Amino acid sequence: MNQFQYVRPTKQKAAIDALAKDANAQFIAGGTNLLDLMKRGVIASQKLIDINRLPLTKIESQNGSLRIGALALNGPVAEDRLVLERQPLLAQALSAGASAQLRNMATVGGNMLQRTRCPYFYDTAMPCNKREPGTGCGALEGINRMHAIFGFSDKCIAVHPSDMSVALVALDATVLVSGPKGDRRIPFNDFHRLPGDTPQKDTNLEQGELITAVEIPDAPFTKHVSYYKVRERASYAFALVSAAAALELDGTTIKSARLAMGGVAHKPWRLTAAEQVLVGKPATEETFRQAAEVAMQGAKAFKHNAYKLKLGPNTIIQALKTAAAA
Amino acid sequence: MKTPEKQIGARMNRVDGRQKVTGAATYSAEYQLPGITYAVLVGSTITKGRITSIDTKAAERAPGVLAVITHFNSPKVPGFDTAGKDPSQPATVGGPIKVFKDDKIRFNDQPIAIVVADSLERARFAAGLVKGQYAQEKHQTSLEAAKSQAFLPTSAKKNPKHPMNDYQRGQVDAYKTGAIKLESEYVVPTEVHQPMELQAITAHWEAPDRLTIYDKTQGTMATRRDFAREWGLPEENVKVIATYVGGAFGNALHSWQHESAAIIAARVVNRPVKLMLTREQMFTMVGYRPYTWQKLGMSATPDGKITAITHEAIGQTSTFEEFTESTLAQTRMMYESPNLTTRYRIASLDVNSPIWMRGPGEATGAFALESAMDEMAHLLNIDPLEFRLRNYTEQDPEKNRPWSSKFLKECYQLGAERVGWNKRQLKPGSLRDGDWLIGYGMGVGTFGAHRGSSKANIRLLPNGTVLLQSAVTDIGPGTATAMTQIAADTLGLAPEKIKFELGNSNFAQAPTQGGSAIVNTVGPAVQEACLALKEKLRTLAASSNAAFASAKKEDVVFAEGYLTLNGNPAARVPFADLLQQVDGGFVTVESKPQGNASKNYSMYSFSVHFAEVRVHALTGEVRVSKLVSCADAGTIVNEKTAGNQMKGGAVGGIGMALMEHAIIDDRFGRYITKDFADYHVPVHADSPDVQVAFVNKPDPYVNALGTKGIGEIAIIGVAPAIANAIFNATGKRIRELPITPDKLLV
To answer: Where is the FAD-binding PCMH-type domain (chain A) (predicted)?
Structure first.
């Protein structure tokens, strides 16, 4: 771990200014990922700007949406009455992530910004274009059983590890950011990037920008929802594959649907084509199977992750079944 | 007066439980000696080759740094030149790498430098500044690729009676001509011990020729011997303290390079040095359960009698030490098979040396044997429990002699009832609850009931309490608690009046804790020491009280402030009078196995594990919904701590079966699973409430207590029980551990 400066501003503007003028600075909130990365030498920030004193923890009902402050903690958000009533899919996804201890430290903003768990990214003695552009992708010809089947490039095949983000992309959330050039709103699906030729950039945030909140529009997905996460133990592990499913049912007919996957791409993977398959059809396993088939179009496996081509659709089916039965 | 209740068998709480849960227990990294310094190791980033240079300048200039030691400037360690030349040393093959002695790199993350600073943070920062340059050579870290170069261990080549030699009864490979036969290959991958407490040492040169180390070790005396030899010191000049050990599972059965490095560093800075490995270094700088490939052939008659078994295994070792373990031992004695062949080989890889991990080779071997038993039962369309009963051994078929005791049938019955074995269907995939397939499986375990020799110190204190001391360590089973119970019954004294001190090489000689042998070995020494103390006190009391002269030592009774006699409460001698005569010293007793029992009888503990699993039909997720472990381990000294050991072993077995897998990317020779995010061990949600049952019948021959040992049989057989249950649930036979969802989706 390198030596670094540490500041703790209490005003949002001061925090943004501090970051904007220092390319080697970084925000720290819960620190559950950043500190690990610094201890391993993956990230060597010269300055940490602790934003925990900024007033960004509120969860509030707005006209037509639910607004969750960027510093609201994952654990409390998952148990919040408003969230449970209006966005139960988000609560499920949050509860599926990490451990109780980590959820009580990790923030909503930080959760979106967590880095990939690709082991080549974590080991400074191995090649990784995301950590050190130009060194190559260790996973491409390596042990890639946890890696992407959608949207990868020959520079990077890592996956995004967040559970929460899978629910948020399904729920059409918006990320609110504030920066040196003012405030802007980023649709959740545009927040994370595909690796392309610049895998070092995980998101479309610009230098100096601070996530202040996420907004989730009200929608009729308060009952038939399921975040189904398949992992190698019952709790406290990253997803092999996960699926977020939300259904609006009229009797047994699907009026509208939202579907996304985790553990399959460099970003939370929204499945709009598969959603279209569901709409107007009966909520049966056969319908879910058709949607899953469409969802998997274009998927491609590497040496060690071919199982995801089967686990992917099965997880979607399981999530939809669970959602329909909820 | 009231006779104290019998303590052996009682569910007594741990005598050190309070210290452990309140943080009062001091572990090896927690000794804050005056002038303490902190060290961090730097590991190589290549797997094989030579160090051409190490840039230490920046680290040396970093704040608070006291020393940066590499092979370029390390002081001469006298034992590094003489090691292996001492004819009194046991005939081991190879030896651990001598740290900082030369430029050779033999495995990835091999220590190349140690940085000592005045704080841990400064040492860690400076360690990050040390950069090695290497001349890299081609390496091999894959056992699958090195299998063709596997060889018979040198210990076996040198000694035809060595158990690592090929074994034969009846005809060679007779299964090949059997009527009903199977031949399957199995893989148990590398697993790491990763106990909660990291490997840690605090090294302190109290004088130029006197070394004290506070060390995470399973054997204070073995560690003392190793470092006395390394520094050319008499053993009494080296003191090893390991009062508390936060789990070990075999990881601390070996002296590793980091221990030598810390001692060297303490020599250089002339201050105490504290060194704790990181979680990542626990994958590389210490041992692990070796990747092992196995092939098992078996034939049987249609009515379920095994006619032949051939079991072969190849385990990995390093290029500098030949590590072996008893992978094939259970196969030779568990089932009545007239024809039986075993062949054990090892293959050298560019990795650190393995070290026995709980259950060691037997747990690896049992995965193959007990899976094959299930496969054969399925082929024969016979219930797997019935199949095992048809091949039950009433005497040891390997040594052709009786068992000292064997109550495995009783274990089968207990376990089958508790798990609900009668619900099991012969046809796989028959039971279902919604999306979950349900199956039942069993696996058998055995481990030698070893007893060595040991000493115990005992002493009566003025307040009427008794102090016992032993160099033995406690890596978690509750050694001091069990010994207190044994002493309480033998002395007739309440357990609160007994103190058992351990974990110090200056105490009475005891073996290293491992191999399920401590209660078997140290228990009798404690028992005999208690009797010796009673006899000594009786003799002393006889000089002032005639009634004691004619009494037996068994009748001596401790009372409040005085000694009396059973059935003669009038006879009493105050402790104060006795202590004047005993001069306050210890009575030391040595206890050894007596007679020919170990030659005339085969001594083993036995266990059986029954699992009920649920497998998700779509996702391949596995949940162990019931796990029942039953053991024939002789007398159970403490059902609470013994049950705790069984549960811990069972949970370890869940890890072995379903998730533990240390993976090396062979292109680099580096682990890609280097933390608990990538290397999975079971969490609470993965473990059902493990049910434990003991037969609890004393073994008449192992020792006077009737104990046989628990630690290993707690895990041996668990992984195949789960694998067999998965087969019963799904019809999918997975022969390569761990059984992760991807393998069940294919």
So the answer is: 1-221
Q: Mark yes or no for CB contact B125/A2 under 8 Å.
A: yes
Contact A142 B665 (CB under 8 A): yes
d(CA B655, CA B672): 18
Q: How high is the pLDDT of residue B91? A: 43
d(CA A325, nearest CA chain B) in Å: 12
Give CA B276 to chain center in angstroms: 21
Edge-to-edge order in the sheet of strand B436-448: B431-433, B436-448, B604-616, B622-632, B691-694
β-bridge mates for residue B619, sequence order: none
Domains and CATH numbers, chain B: 17-24+452-592 (3.30.365.10), 31-137+196-247+252-284 (3.90.1170.50), 148-190+288-450+599-745 (3.30.365.10)
Which of B665, B673, B686 should one mutate to test binding to chain A, selecting the residue with the greatest count of A CBs within 10 A?
Answer: B665
* Single-letter amino acid, residue B131: K
User: What is d(CA B445, CA B441) in angstroms, rounded to the nearest whole number?
Assistant: 14
Q: Each residue of A215-264: pLDDT tens digit?
A: 999 999 999 999 999 999 999 999 999 999 999 999 999 999 999 999 99
Asked about B712 being catalytic, the answer comes back as: yes
Contacts of B596 (CB under 8 A, 6+ apart): none
Q: Which residues of B touch A39 (CB under 8 A)?
A: 124
- Average pLDDT, stretch B454-461? 94
> How long a stretch of residues is chain A?
326
- Token code pair at residue B151: 């060889």
User: A72 to chain B, minimum CA–CA distance in Å?
Assistant: 24
Average confidence score pLDDT of chain B: 95
Q: Helices B518-542 and B479-491 meet at what angle, rounded to 10?
A: 30
| Identity of the residue numbered B173 | D
Q: Identify the structural domains of chain A with CATH numbers, from first to last.
A: 5-52 (3.30.43.10), 224-325 (3.30.390.50)
CB contact under 8 Å between A318 and B616, yes or no, is yes
Question: Among the listed ranges B69-83, B168-182, B491-505, B568-582, which one has the minimum average pLDDT value?
Answer: B568-582
Rounded to whole angstroms, how far apart are CA atoms A126 and B354?
24
What is the phi/psi pair of residue A86, to 5°? Answer: -105, -25
ipTM comes to 0.97
Q: How far apart are CA B308 and CA B338, in angstroms?
A: 6
Who among A2, A236, A317 is closest to B683 (CB)? A236
**Both tokens assigned to B70:** 């590499």
Tokens 């004290």 — which residue? B212
pLDDT one-digit tens code per residue, A293-307 = 999 999 999 999 999
Q: What is the pLDDT of residues A26-51, one digit of tens each?
A: 999 999 999 999 999 999 999 999 99
Minimum-distance CB partner of B672 among A143, A233, A307: A143
Among candidate residues B362, B375, B612, B712, the one labeled active-site is: B712
Task: Report CB contact under 8 Å: A119, B659.
Answer: no
Q: How confident is the model at residue B220 (pLDDT cuts 50, 70, 90)?
A: very high
Q: State whether B618 and A41 contact (CB < 8 Å).
A: no
* Closest among B422, B419, B332, B420 to B386, alpha carbons compared: B422
Q: What is the mean pLDDT of residues B646-675?
A: 98
Q: Do B685 and A1 touch (CB under 8 A)?
A: no
Residues of chain B neighbouring A142 (CB-CB closer than 8 A): 665, 667, 672
Nearest CA-CA distance, residue A9 and chain B, Å:
25
Q: Which residues of B touch A141 (CB under 8 A)?
A: 667
**Surface of A (32-61) touching B: CB under 8 A:** 39-41
B87 has pLDDT over 60: no
Task: Write the burial class of residue B162 (CB in 10 Å: 0-12 exposed, 13-18 middle, 19+ buried).
Answer: middle
